[in-house]
Amino acid sequence: MSSAAPLVIRFIGGGNMASALVGGLLRTGHPATAIQVVEPDAAARDRLVAATGVAPCAATPAEWPPCELAVLAVKPQVLREVARQHAASLHAALVVSVAAGIRLADLSRWLDGHRRVVRAMPNTPALVGAGVTGLAAGLGLDDADRVRAQALFDAVGSSLWVDDDAGIDLVTALSGSGPAYMMLMVEALTAAGVAQGLEADRAERLALDTMAGAVALMRTSQAPPATLRAQVTSPGGTTERGIGALQAGGFEALLATAVAAARARAAELGEMLGKDPT
Ligand SMILES: NC(=O)c1ccc[n+]([C@@H]2O[C@H](COP(=O)([O-])OP(=O)(O)OC[C@H]3O[C@@H](n4cnc5c(N)ncnc54)[C@H](OP(=O)(O)O)[C@@H]3O)[C@@H](O)[C@H]2O)c1
How far apart are CA 65 and CA 39, in angstroms? Predict the structure, then answer.
């Protein structure tokens, strides 16, 4: 995102996700002087400023220089209040929200009808530069805005656009919650190794390195995962027996149920978090 006149980006909320995104921007050459942080928690703000050299914003919004892109990176429960507080200063900015569950129409409404908004759903591997983010565009976005929003998340992994909030709910259920599914898999594989007599630390290392290795192989190979799996599943061999046990236990159906359940919960949360107090 480096250029002669760098985009001035304001982070509202300076916690984990903001730190990850700031780190990504700096790695891709965005100057720290063109990044502002609004964070009321002095300890969190000082940590981020010390680690990255970004500019903390003054206490009074009237003193803030204008920004071209604002990232709302606060907890979903406070997003409404924060958006309302900042609405007047963001009329000329592209506004990106990473708050889980907050829908585009609610975000626009809380920003006084502002339509240059993006809803993003990153996942926790973004914290180590290996995230994947789903993005949905508000009604007022142009192509340049899309490029700007996407560059922010490509700096901490990869990203893809979906059509609407329903698409983000699905991204949430698959890749948003997905790291926890993978972690559960490693936990379960570790426990299975222990049950068969391995020491816990050795079982965990085998499970974790196997997952990392399988991912690296799938990423490097031209062949789809199903082909790679078939290649290691010799007729009458150990993998065939193990996979057979997984499938007989409903492994694929269980994952489908998990994603459907998480998607339904994402929709429920959107409904709940979007309500204005009566
Ligand atoms: N972490 C992830 O992997 C991840 C993944 C997907 C989506 N997200 C979304 O990203 C958002 C941020 O998550 P996070 O993990 O970064 O949370 P976090 O570490 O708690 O960061 C949020 C920060 O915002 C600050 N804040 C609270 N009220 C504020 C206000 N009025 N103005 C400015 N800052 C304010 C909080 O300060 P206090 O602590 O003092 O309240 C906190 O430092 C959430 O909406 C979450 O749904 C996170």
Answer: 16
pLDDT tens-digit map of 192-220: 999 999 999 999 999 999 999 999 999 99
User: Is residue 274 situated within a structural domain?
Assistant: no
Do 154 and 196 reside in the same domain of the chain? Answer: no
CA of 90 to the centre of ligand 1 (A): 19
Give the structural domain span for 81: 9-163
Distance 6 CA to ligand 1 centre (A): 25
DSSP 186: H
Q: Per residue in 106-133, pLDDT tens?
A: 999 999 999 999 999 999 999 999 999 9
Query: Ligand 1: residues within 6 Å at CB?
Result: 12-18, 38-41, 44, 73-76, 78, 82, 98-100, 122-124
The CATH number given to whatever domain includes residue 207 is 1.10.3730.10
Question: Does residue 32 form part of some domain?
Answer: yes
- Cα–Cα distances (Å) from 103 to 16, 94, 99, 124, 149, in that order, read 21, 16, 9, 20, 17
